[in-house]
Amino acid sequence: MSRLNAIFSSYLAETEAYIGASSPPPIGERTFFGSMRYAESSFGQTREREECRMSFLSLCLTTLGSFGVLFLVAKFIGHKQIAQLDFFDYITGITIGSIAAEMATELEEPWKPLTAMVIYGGVTLLLSVISKRFPRTRKYLNGTPTILMDHGKLYRENLKKSKLELSEFMVMCRQQGYFDLTNIQTAIYECNGKLTILPVSSQRPATPSDMGLSPAQELLFTELIMDGRILEDNLKRMGLDLTWLNEQLRQHRVHSAKDLFLAVCDRNLTFVIYEKSRDEQGHTR
After folding, report:
1. Going along the chain, which residue ranges are E strands?
2. Of 130, 160, 176, 212, which is least packed with CB atoms within 10 Å of its CB?
């Protein structure tokens, strides 16, 4: 009995000595129980490092997955989410973004936030289809424009309905260049939170037709060279070829397309180049 107590006491002493050891005990001091305890400690540390690696890998995979799903949901919803952000789109965008962030850090059950993202994106897409198929539902889903000012009269009740202070309305007018309200014929507060202004006819900018002029119609320019690289698809779309392009470069004394920062052309074959060494200056032919 005393022999067993001595062995047990020796095991406890050696265990306390080797707990937290960062390196194996010296060969001369190794015992059976000390070696066993150190082996257990080393195995535990190795397992912890392996679990950390797996957790980091899972975090990377779930983050990439949430990014991919968010990208697909945004593609399905369309550019309206960015270009025409109304109240409902604003709430939906914030919610989907929050769920995507949760999915990126959810390592145990990432399918839950993934399902929520898909449902939110599907409901948003469904409501968009409903508003297109049934126009009468638009006023309930998107709201209706509100006239805030017309014929020089401000509608106070409509300002309250739109949750706008008079100072905020003045700021929105100034942002569009109207510092004098007498120059405004009608001001409409749109569903996406933007202000549309119709100026008084006598204060609107003059047009060529007001002056009896008939200027030639301007046409869009198409990029033919960008960053020294020839865009052959755009060249074919314009009905042109490399022979024509090389002739234009020769006339502008350009040795190679690589010397150009940008080159554009319109349907009237107006060729404009911007050289890399002086990209602020345009040369037209």
Report:
1. 146-150, 153-154, 184-189, 195-199, 222-226, 229-230, 260-265, 271-275, 283-284
2. 212
Query: Would you say the C-alpha torsion 247, 249, 250, 256 has a positive or negative sign?
Result: negative
* 8 Å CB contact between 224 and 218: no
227-242 average pLDDT score:
90
Residue 264, pLDDT score? 93
CA 219 vs. chain centroid, Å, equals 31
24 Cβ contact list (under 8 Å, min separation 6): 30, 35, 38
Q: How many other CB atoms are found less than 10 A from the CB of residue 260?
A: 22
Pair 154, 164: CB distance under 8 Å: no
The span from the CA of 162 to the CA of 43, in Å, is 66
Two structure tokens written together for 144: 């209706």
Q: What is the mean pLDDT of residues 182-206?
A: 88
Give 99-103 contacts, CB < 8 A, sequence gap 24+. 100/66, 100/67, 100/69, 100/70, 101/66, 103/62, 103/65, 103/66, 103/69
pTM: 0.52
Confidence class for position 195, pLDDT limits 50, 70, 90: very high
Q: Locate 233 and state its tokens.
A: 């698809």
Q: What 8-state DSSP symbol labels residue 191?
A: T
Closest by CA position to 78, among listed 93, 68, 98: 93
